[in-house]
């Protein structure tokens, strides 16, 4: 597949949050010819690791659907990454790199269900994904992230649908397809993304400060679509894995329909707002 047409004069967009949904956003912007840089935490709690640019924080680089993301230590390294047709990713939770890069747009795809620090004057165009933001106050536009009729829709007034706390239904399962940590502690995976699993099967162990372990059990039958990195520090109830009851292994290694829909909405928002 041909690389996107990107030049040194192509506009820069910063995507805050490089989990699977942020990756879908960055992927679509990259394919459209923008120079995209992603920012994330020092130890991102990313679950769909095989399709998340955030995995480059742990592994130095990752390729998702033929697009390479590579970890950079300094904003000055971004130009070389773009020349290699890569998406650079920086550990920069406060998005300080925006001062040096002067992006045409900043996209908040942290999906914290609240605003963790994005301001409407961070860039000429600021787009937020999901609830926790108000158009005209925090950003110039919002893209709906809730599954359903409005997924990926650009919101130009008001806010996104409020967080329900319930995962969207896939293959007839909603909350049950999400696996959560049984206790506080350090996470150690037993099964691998892409494995077929059965309800009640051990997916991982969580070791507490005293060294005692509790198993993390599969909640339903299906394919293990995502599981957090080993040695991650977790708290009781934290989402640590995702089981897809459709059991299609290829889905574990490709960007989801939801991520692509959100990415399309972000692309529309940036292009339309820049034209105003």
Task: List strands and helices in order, with pairings.
Layout: E1 12-16, H1 20-31, E2 35-40, H2 56-59, E3 61-64, E4 67-71, H3 78-83, E5 87-91, H4 98-101, E6 105-108, E7 125-129, E8 141-143, E9 154-155, E10 178-180, E11 185-189, E12 196-197, E13 202-207, E14 213-217, E15 222-227, E16 233-234, E17 239-244, H5 257-274
Helix pairs in contact: 1-5
List keywords for this structure.
single chain, 276 residues, alpha/beta, Rossmann fold, OB fold (Dihydrolipoamide Acetyltransferase, E2P), 2 domains, nine-stranded mixed β-sheet, four-stranded antiparallel β-sheet, 5 helices, 17 strands, globular
Can you walk me through this structure?
With 276 residues, the chain is of the alpha/beta class. The chain folds into 2 domains: 12-164 and 257-274, Rossmann fold (3-Layer(aba) Sandwich); 175-245, OB fold (Dihydrolipoamide Acetyltransferase, E2P) (Beta Barrel). Helices cover 16% and strands 27% of the residues. It has 5 helices and 17 strands. The chain has helices at 20-31, 56-59, 78-83, 98-101, 257-274; strands at residues 12-16, 35-40, 61-64, 67-71, 87-91, 105-108, 125-129, 141-143, 154-155, 178-180, 185-189, 196-197, 202-207, 213-217, 222-227, 233-234, 239-244. It has a 9-stranded mixed sheet with strand order 3-4-5-2-1-6-7-8-9. Strands 10-17-15-12 form a 4-stranded antiparallel sheet, with no helix packed on it. It has a 4-stranded antiparallel sheet with strand order 14-13-11-16, with no helix packed on it. Helix 1 (20-31) crosses helix 5. The longest helix has 18 residues, at 257-274. The model has no long low-confidence stretch (mean pLDDT 93).
């Amino acid at each position: 597949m041909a690389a996107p047409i990107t030049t040194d004069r192509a506009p820069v967009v910063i995507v805050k949050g490089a989990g699977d949904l942020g990756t879908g956003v960055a992927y679509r912007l990259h394919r459209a010819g923008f120079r995209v840089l992603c920012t994330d935490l020092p130890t991102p709690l990313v679950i769909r690791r095989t399709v998340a640019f955030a995995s480059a924080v742990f592994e130095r680089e990752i390729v998702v659907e033929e697009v390479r993301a590579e970890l950079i230590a300094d904003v000055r390294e971004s130009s070389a990454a773009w020349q290699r047709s890569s998406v650079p990713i920086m550990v920069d939770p406060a998005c300080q790199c925006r001062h040096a890069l002067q992006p045409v747009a900043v996209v908040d795809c942290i999906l914290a269900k609240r605003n963790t620090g994005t301001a409407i004057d961070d860039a000429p165009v600021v787009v937020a994904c999901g609830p926790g933001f108000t158009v005209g106050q925090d950003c110039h536009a919002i893209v709906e992230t809730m599954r359903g009729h409005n997924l990926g829709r650009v919101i130009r007034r008001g806010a996104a649908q409020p967080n329900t706390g319930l995962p969207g239904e896939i293959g007839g399962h909603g909350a049950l397809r999400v696996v959560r940590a049984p206790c506080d502690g350090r996470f150690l995976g037993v099964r691998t993304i892409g494995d077929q699993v059965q309800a009640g099967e051990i997916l991982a162990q969580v070791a507490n400060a005293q060294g005692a372990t509790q198993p993390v059990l599969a909640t339903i039958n299906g394919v293990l679509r995502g599981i957090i990195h080993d040695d991650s520090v977790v708290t009781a109830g934290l989402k640590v894995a995702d089981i897809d009851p459709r059991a299609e292994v290829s889905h574990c290694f490709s960007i989801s329909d939801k991520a692509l829909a959100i990415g399309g909405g972000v692309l529309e928002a940036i292009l339309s707002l820049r034209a105003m």
